[in-house]
Structures are given as structure tokens and as C-alpha cells.
Amino acid sequence: MKIFISNVLAALAVVVAASAPVLAAQSQTPVAVQTPAQTPQAVPKSVRPLAPQEALTQCLLKSTSADEKRVLVKWVFAVIAQHPDISSMTQIDPAQRNAIDRDAAKVFEQLLADQCAGPLRTAMKQSGTDAIGKSFQALGTSAATDMLQNPQVVASGAGLMKHLDMQRLLLALIAP
């Protein structure tokens, strides 16, 4: 379940990545390509600076509070709840949906335009939208992990266990 929710939260990255062409258009600096002779030699991680995508990821993780992570999880949930296979399982009225969208937009805007603008620009120049996707996937994983540690969520997820044939799964693991 944890992996599923983490992957679902990665959808957040898709939305942000979709806006990346606008961000990229604002920065017309060409990306330098390194030849093998120019590639830096291995330097211990503690000494070398973070790669741009790593720096963006760290900025997002450090700059997002627990409350902001909950806002992002609510937004992803509201988006996914629109899928026809699950839309009948939940009701989000238009006023709630508008509030969820507004709150998530505020978090995105603060992260991308204020708190992590420098690492975002650098990562976009070096890696394009891929860096944004990976960084937001890490943020989504962090947010999902926090939510999944809630005792009520853990107890609810444990309901699956009573329906699993553990002996069958064990045999599948040890079979040649």
C-alpha cells in the first residue's frame, strides 16, 4: 500500500512537469555538455556539491512542513478520487475541491517560486523536467510515508492480511 500511494503521489510530479516548458522558456541559458575528459573525478559525497536534482530534492524536503505535506496528499487524493473506478467511493463537493486546489497551489507556489527557486532553475537547466519529476516523487514518497504511519491507517491496511493466503505466498518465495 505504501508503494502504491508513493507512486500515486508521484503523479504530482507529472502535473508540475507539465508546467516545465513555461519554466524552461524563462531560462534560455544553453546546457553545457561535458566530454569524458571534462567529467569530474570521483570525489567523496561529503566533499562534492550536490547535483542539481539532489539539491532540488533536498530543498523540497527541507522546505515542506508536515502540514504542507498533508495538503499535498489531500490534493493528490482529490485528483485520484475523480477516476471512474473509484469516484463512487468518495464525494468531494465543489467548495471542498476548490479549497483543496487553492491550498495545494499555495504550497506549490511557495516551494517553486520562493523557497526552492534557485535549485529549481539550476535543475531545469541541467536536467529539464526529469529533475522536477524525481524531486517531487521524493517529496510525495515522504508525504505518503508520514500519512501511512498514522495508527488508524496502519490498522486499516492490516485488514488486507486476513484475506491473504500467507502459506501460498511463502511457498512462492521459497520455490525454485
Rg over CA atoms? 20 Å
Low-confidence parts lasting 5 or more residues at pLDDT below 50?
1-40
- Report the span from N to C terminus: 27 Å
Helices, by number, come to 10
Biggest sheet: strands, sense, closure? none
Domains, number:
1
Quaternary class: single chain
Return the structural class: mainly alpha
Count the E strands.
0
Order of helices and strands: HHHHHHHHHH
**What is the approximate shape?**
extended
Helix fraction by DSSP (H/I, runs of at least 4): 55-70%
What amount of the residues lies in strands? under 5%
**Mean pLDDT score:** 79
Describe what you observe in this structure.
The radius of gyration is 20 Å and the shape is extended. It has 10 helices and no strands. Helix 2 (11-18) packs antiparallel against helix 8 (129-148), helix 4 (52-63) packs antiparallel against helix 7 and helix 7 crosses helix 8. The protein starts with a helix and ends with a helix. By secondary structure, the chain is mostly helical. It has one domain (2-25, 50-150).
